């Protein structure tokens, strides 16, 4: 478990069992004299850090890095000091240096995740915490951090995909729509999904966004618009989800034969779909009693 002190994650103290091994292939080869200077500077930085004098700690950790830029703990400690100073972008940069130097060190990802959380980039933070758990699967502290980051990410607009690549304009509009939907702001969500449709560059994208917008109309009990949007989605790419949604809308509009046709198509796509078999039985009885 990674320790904490007054909201600032504790720094590496240099114990042999906790300090990661220096990689065999280093970006800069340093001599013993430089390494000694670096350790001395780090020790001075630690004293200031413990006293919560983060500016002075940063100065000494910087001197350590200047003497030896191959030791991940120097960047890790300076990252913690930057966090103490609320200099989160610089903390993130140092955490990324940790990741480059020691990609299998759990603390690297803990630092990165913490900096991203501070920057309100919760989705990226969750990815960092997951990478940390790949290094140390039983780290309960990281599991808690991951759960909280994922919870916060649900209410944050994603701007990158799971690989860190920037989303397109249409995808960002969709993500904004998703946030509004989760907050039950259906009219706002409809506006965003409409913009996503306008900015979409592929028909397959449009199919998804029409389906999303149809879900909003279903919440607003606008069944005719549900049918229209689901039909647009199905024309591009028939899916069980869109067909079920349209069938339920048809049923609410008392168009039972059309609803039955859609549910039978769902059953062809997914024979295990229980909602389809149950709906087919119900709709058949209703049609027989008409």
Account of the protein in words:
It is built from 14 helices and 2 strands, in the order E-E-H-H-H-H-H-H-H-H-H-H-H-H-H-H. With 290 residues, the chain is mainly alpha-helical. Residues 1-7 and 13-30 have low confidence and may be disordered. The chain has a two-stranded antiparallel sheet.
Shape: elongated
Largest sheet: 2 strands, antiparallel
Mean pLDDT reading: 88
Oligomer: single chain
Ends apart, CA distance between termini: 67 Å
How is the largest sheet built, in terms of strand order? 1-2
**Proportion of helical residues:** 55-70%
Question: Which class of secondary structure composition applies to the elements?
Answer: mainly alpha
Binned strand content = under 5%
Roughly how many Å is the radius of gyration?
Answer: 27 Å
The unreliable regions are 1-7, 13-30
Q: What is the number of strand segments?
A: 2
Number of helices: 14
> What string gives the helices and strands in order?
EEHHHHHHHHHHHHHH
Spell out the blueprint of helices and strands:
Blueprint: E1 4-5, E2 8-9, H1 32-50, H2 54-67, H3 72-84, H4 88-101, H5 106-118, H6 122-135, H7 140-153, H8 169-182, H9 186-199, H10 203-219, H11 223-236, H12 240-252, H13 256-269, H14 274-288
Antiparallel strand pairs: 1-2
């Amino acid at each position: 478990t990674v320790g904490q002190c007054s909201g600032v994650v504790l720094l590496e103290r240099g114990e042999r069992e906790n300090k990661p091994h220096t990689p065999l292939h280093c970006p800069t080869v340093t001599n013993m004299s430089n390494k000694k200077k670096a350790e001395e500077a780090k020790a001075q930085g630690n004293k200031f850090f413990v006293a919560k004098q983060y500016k002075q700690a940063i100065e000494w950790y910087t001197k350590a890095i200047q003497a030896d830029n191959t030791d991940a703990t120097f960047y890790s400690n300076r990252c913690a000091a930057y966090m103490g100073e609320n200099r989160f972008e610089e903390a993130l940069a140092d955490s990324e240096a940790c990741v480059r130097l020691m990609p299998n060190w759990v603390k690297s990802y803990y630092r990165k995740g913490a900096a991203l959380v501070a920057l309100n980039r919760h989705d990226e933070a969750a990815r960092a915490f997951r990478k940390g758990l790949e290094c140390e699967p039983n780290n309960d502290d990281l599991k808690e951090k991951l759960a909280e980051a994922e919870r916060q990410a649900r209410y944050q607009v994603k701007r990158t995909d799971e690989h860190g690549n920037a989303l397109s304009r249409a995808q960002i509009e969709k993500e904004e729509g998703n946030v509004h939907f989760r907050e039950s702001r259906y009219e706002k969500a409809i506006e965003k999904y409409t913009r996503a449709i306008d900015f979409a560059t592929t028909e397959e994208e449009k199919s998804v966004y029409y389906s999303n917008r149809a879900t909003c109309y279903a919440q607003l009990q606008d069944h005719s618009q549900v049918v229209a949007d689901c039909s647009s989605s199905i024309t591009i790419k028939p899916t069980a989800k869109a067909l079920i949604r349209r069938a339920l809308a048809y049923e609410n509009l008392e168009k039972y034969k059309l609803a039955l046709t859609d549910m039978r198509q769902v059953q062809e796509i997914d024979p295990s779909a229980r909602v389809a078999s149950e709906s087919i039985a119900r709709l058949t009885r209703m049609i027989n009693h008409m």
